[in-house]
Specification:
Low-confidence stretches: 1-14
CATH class of the largest domain: Alpha Beta
CATH superfamily of the largest domain: Glucose-6-phosphate isomerase like protein, domain 1
Number of helices: 19
Distance between the termini: 53 Å
Helix content: 40-55%
Structural class: alpha/beta
Radius of gyration: 25 Å
CATH architecture of the largest domain: 3-Layer(aba) Sandwich
Strand content: 5-15%
């Protein structure tokens, strides 16, 4: 499907450890100076906003409250060159082998490309368009009442069952874009855990005789997903009707077509997820079917359009004006040279309440690695821990630590510019967002004339980036998600790691299977320490 060449040829420069390179050592020396900078001094430059506020079609990103200058960016340009960034970026967008540990390309950007790219195997684009067309035809039949339940009922609700990448993208986008729901769409519900309490909460909201159940699992073997599916089949339908229920009311989003067929799902209800699209990027693939059903073809195409615009920005802009690249170098800068171990994501917009959780998987599953492309143990930090919450709630919980605590935690603030009407609520949100970024940079002394006690002093000098969506639309959300995808990719290249595998997750799954077998059959797959813990648990 993809022309990968005979093998992945790693550039000879990777034979030298990153932290031993001249580029790293020069950057480290520069960092020694930057650690003594004051943001208040940097912000005195009247041209700083113009220089560090970068526009794209749907976003404005203000980098001025960060510990960077032109020299910093020049050092990072050399580090990017050392890691062969431009070539690696071209490989991503050319569909070449870039997930070298699994011998795959990464095709998520192809799902939102409005036209075939030059020098690309046309079969890739053709297959993606074929999958999209199947989704479009299915939705048309669904809303026209041509698809019914096993009981002949019109479908009025859909339950999507999936976990990780099969859930988090849908959780974010379905909640975020609910006001763009088209009137003919069934209600969408998501189940992401085999916790029976969660499953029962969802099942109480639906009529099972008028519901389609979507099993979203690329491997079609995900333990949690099928535990939920089997529980629903066993508790809400009769055993004699199982075959017909699965045939008429179950859909599959998977790369394993044959496995889905053997489960009993009919071919027209199986939608292929390309194997070259990882779970955390799968919202752009057939895994986005529930979102497509909810917001309809027009809005979904706008969602893709926004992401494609950021793809083009990432491909064409020079480093100084490239939003994803600047975000990546800042995160790498703070994590490796400012002793930062985490980054806070704070959207001042309720529709983005699940965005920090979405980014946790995107960033930490992608770049939580310790082995480089030459199978060497890396000597630097590859990723911060991602966490956050919705403003203004955060101001009454953890913002105190960011302002006066001893930890160095960079913040991404996210705002939406609501232009359609004057809205006091939006003004309150925006005022609080700008107040937080200002206070992090300047502290409280510039805003308070009288002398204050030491314990009340907020010293400031804490960095933050402000991301403003120019309006609230499917396009702006698509652009925002793609922005962070490319930030994560760039950080992976800076670190010299593979951002597209997740063997840590796979290992945890295998151990869980062994423990589950021990629960059921007492097979002794466990080490002594774990066996003692499990035995005591079972005694309680």
């Amino acid at each position: 499907m993809v022309n990968t060449g005979a093998s992945l040829e790693l550039d000879s420069r990777f034979k030298k450890m990153l932290t031993q390179s001249k580029e790293w050592l020069d950057l480290k020396l520069h960092a020694g100076e930057a650690l003594h900078w004051k943001l208040t001094d940097l912000l005195e430059n009247s041209d700083r906003f113009q220089e560090y506020a970068i526009d794209s079609r749907y976003l404005l990103v203000d980098f001025q409250r960060n510990f960077i200058n032109k020299e910093t960016i020049n050092y990072f340009k050399k580090l990017l060159n050392f890691q062969n960034f431009s070539t690696q970026r071209e490989k991503l967008f050319n569909g070449e082998l870039i997930n070298y540990t699994e011998n795959k390309s990464a095709l998520h950007t192809f799902c939102r490309s409005s036209s075939p790219r030059n020098n690309i195997d046309p079969a890739i684009y053709t297959e993606i368009q074929s999958i999209k067309n199947k989704i479009r035809l299915f939705r048309n039949k669904l809303v026209n009442g041509e698809i019914t339940s096993n009981f002949g009922n019109k479908i009025n609700s859909i339950v999507s069952i999936g976990i990780g990448g099969s859930h988090l993208g849908l959780q974010l986008t379905i909640d975020a874009l609910k006001e763009f729901k088209v009137s003919d769409s069934p209600e969408i519900h998501l189940i992401s855990t085999p916790d029976k309490r969660h499953v029962q909460d969802i099942m109480e909201k639906i009529e099972v005789h008028s519901t389609l159940f979507i099993l979203s699992s690329k491997s079609f073997t995900t333990q949690e997903t099928f535990a939920v599916a089997e529980w629903i089949l066993n508790n809400y339908f009769t055993e004699s009707s199982r075959t017909d229920i699965v045939k008429k009311q179950f859909l599959a989003l998977t790369s394993q077509i044959d496995v889905a067929l053997s489960y009993g799902i009919q071919p027209d209800y199986i939608f292929k997820v390309l194997d070259e699209i990882g779970g955390r990027y799968s919202i752009w693939s057939a895994s986005g079917l529930p979102l497509y059903i909810l917001i309809g073809e027009t809005n979904y195409d706008l969602f893709l359009k926004g992401a494609e615009d950021m793809d083009n920005h990432f491909l064409s802009r020079e480093t100084e004006k490239n939003i994803p690249v600047l975000m990546a170098l800042l995160s790498f800068w703070y994590t490796n040279f400012f002793n930062s171990s985490s980054q806070a994501i704070i959207p001042y917009f309720f529709r983005l309440r699940y965005f920090p959780e979405y980014l946790q998987q995107l960033e930490m599953e992608s770049n939580g690695k310790s082995i480089d492309r030459q199978n060497n143990q890396i000597q630097h930090k590859s990723s911060p821990a991602i966490w956050g919450g919705v403003g203004t709630n955060t101001q009454h919980s953890f913002m105190q630590l960011l302002h006066q605590g001893t930890l160095f935690i960079p913040v991404d603030f996210i705002a939406v510019r609501a232009k359609n009407e004057k809205n006091i609520f939006d003004e309150i949100l925006s005022a609080n967002l700008f107040a937080q970024s200002d206070c992090l940079a300047y502290g409280n002394q510039t805003h308070q004339q009288k002398e204050i006690n030491a314990e009340k002093i907020i010293s400031g000098n804490k960095p933050s980036t402000t991301i403003i969506l120019k309006n609230w639309s499917p396009e702006s959300l698509g652009s925002l998600i793609a922005l962070y995808e490319h930030k994560v990719f760039t950080m992976g290249i800076l670190s010299g790691i593979n951002s597209f595998d997740q063997f840590g997750v796979e290992t945890g799954k295998k151990i869980a299977e062994d423990i589950y077998s021990y629960f059921s059959h007492k097979k002794n797959y466990l080490n002594l320490s774990l066996k003692k813990s499990i035995d005591k648990y079972l005694e309680l």
